[in-house]
Amino acid sequence: MIVQVGSYPPPIGGISIYIKRMKDFLDLKGIENQVWDYSGIKKKKDDIVNIRFPTIPILYALKKDVSLIHYNICGTKSKNYIGFFNRFLFKNRKKIITIHGNCKGLFTKNRGLIVKSLNSFNAIICVKSNDKEFLLKQGISSDIYEIPAFIPPIVKEKEIAEISPELWNFINSHRPIISANASNIVFQNGQDLYGIDMCVDLCANLKLSFPKAGLVFCLPCIEDYKYFEKIKERIITKGIENNFFLNTKPCQLYPIIMKSDVFVRPTNTDGDAVSVRESLHFKIPTVASDVVPRPPGVILFKNREIDDFTLKVKDIIENYNFYKRKSEETKVENNSENILKIYQKLTN
């Protein structure tokens, strides 16, 4: 049996969606698997085990039928905790880890310990390019793979039906539809990290040329309600209450992307954004800030430059057939197959 450790939706986020989609893929292949979910939000599925993080090694020791365990855990402390048990209790069992964040951040303190912890895994998956080279220089001897975090969704009618009727009505009554998303309201260097403010200004600019334009922004978690109210006030001030849809109901993003004309990612910092690759997978023209290297096929604009942002999106809308053809020529690798190959290599 294959076990994935991490968060399973809800909450909806990059890692939880990664785990869910890998599980869906394994289910489709008929491979026995479980998710050990330590999010603290109880799930009522037989193959989702609700567990507290500290007790994971105990359950792993008891479950002799686990042929491979795949950790998706954040932070240095959690990796060192699991690494300790790997080194002293589970030397002969197969275990891998996906590093979803920046590898460099793991080595800021107690470098020797994190090296030991990472070397306790049979394989390490990095979602960012160039991280393999960095880890090798740090003395990591485990097998290292660079596989982007995007796993294509298996389209399910049930997940499409979870989108609210109000949102579908908005999408059906506006054209063009631009979509964007954020996991939460976050600030980086004093700026709106996900560019919600940029999307409000973009929508206002596009309305001048395209009165029926609609922008859907998915925001499943709100912790900063003060800023959220400011965004709503900004929408009213710009006169785009009928053109901007703030979707705060947690749901899958891909049904919205599938119905979009353009997807945008105006972040002021980023990793290998899953939503960008998802948009490319569904052949939707995609515009993103130039803060990090983006996958082939993405159209870049200058970070926090609203005029350049508007220009790039407007150009796509005005020359849509050209950009749509280019999107259809973009190839996106099926990373679930690549992860399965690692599973098969380790378990024979």
Care to describe what's here?
α3 (76-88) packs across α4 (111-119) and α8 (196-209) packs across α12 (306-318). The chain is globular and about 65 Å long. The strands form 3 sheets. It has a 7-stranded parallel beta sheet with strand order 3-2-1-4-5-6-7, sandwiched between helices. Strands 12-11-8-13-14-15 form a 6-stranded parallel beta sheet, sandwiched between helices. It has a two-stranded antiparallel ribbon with strand order 9-10. With 348 residues, the chain is α/β, with parallel strands linked by helices. The longest helix is centred in the first third of the chain and has 16 residues, at 14-29. The chain has helices at residues 14-29, 56-62, 76-88, 111-119, 131-137, 157-161, 165-172, 196-209, 225-237, 254-258, 274-281, 306-318, 320-329, 335-347, and strands at residues 2-6, 33-37, 48-50, 68-71, 95-99, 123-126, 143-146, 177-181, 187-188, 191-192, 214-218, 244-247, 262-265, 286-289, 299-301. Helices cover 41% and strands 17% of the residues. The chain has 14 helices and 15 strands. The protein starts with a strand and ends with a helix.
Short description:
This protein is of the alpha/beta class and 348 residues long. The protein contains 14 helices and 15 strands.
